[in-house]
Structure prediction request, 322 residues.
Amino acid sequence: MKAIVQNAYGDSSVLHLDEVPVPTAKADEVLIEVRATALNIGDWHLMAGLPMLVRPVIGLKRPRQRIRGMDVAGVVHSVGPAVTAFAVGDEVFGVVDAGLAEYAVASVKKIVRKPASLTFEQAAAIPTSGATALHALRDVGRIQSGQKVLVIGAAGGVGIYATQLAKAFGAHVTGVCSTLKADLVRSIGADEVIDYTKSDFTILGTRYDLIIDTAGNRSVASLRRALTSTGTLVIVGGEGGGRVAGKLSRQMTAPLQGVGSKQSFRGLVSVTHASDLATLAELVEAGRLAPVIDQAYPLGQAAAAMKRLETSAAVGKLVLVG
Prediction:
């Protein structure tokens, strides 16, 4: 089968199309004929091997898993002998370890049936970003109806879902983004939009019950000025920072800054499960959540798609189709 592989860490130029064996599903797995694969910032980190703090897990000198891509949608091609929940021909979406390929193996704990209303490209754009936003708001932020919620990076991969989900949970949502992305953030339901190139929300005087920070460009000390006295800050991702630890250290040390305060500062480590995907699918079917796709590329142009991801120019998700 055709797949996008890498033999060394680096920028998007390390990705290339190659022929590799079709994987075999284990007893509790299914083999998916991949119709679409969406890129995530996590794919970039695995490609680049950054921050270097994660290399003992993913491979010290080169990636142990040569194929990138974690979010897919497709058709079940075969099932393991222990699988009863899925059958050949089922249309599914979810999380895999090697999705930039014509076929990928998935655990039954990481996939659900695709909503009929979505294309394969749209469904592939949901899993990791959607589940991360869900965890940030529901599980870590403990969002309540009527709260004021601020989403920093509201036009990013996670931010687009966080904005929509916060509205679905009944919050008043303010999205922070650049000028070029303001219309998109309004269109997905933000009650207010702050253009960070023109205004600094940390000094505007408005206080929020919950802040979801997906950008990582401001210190915890500055963000707490925008929180209510009992507000919660949830830090998503470890973007920016140095090559060794990135800004993962910000996630790990943030809770210490809340000691002795009624404000809460929390980092998020998100793992997607089928139950999360089922919740997201229900919201899609109810018309309360919709993926946003920036551009779709043929599988062979994965390097070009990853390069666009590197530039942060995309407005929505980048998807590869076989």
In short: The chain has a mean pLDDT of 94. The first helix runs from residue 41 to 48. The chain has two domains: 2-126+291-321, 129-268.
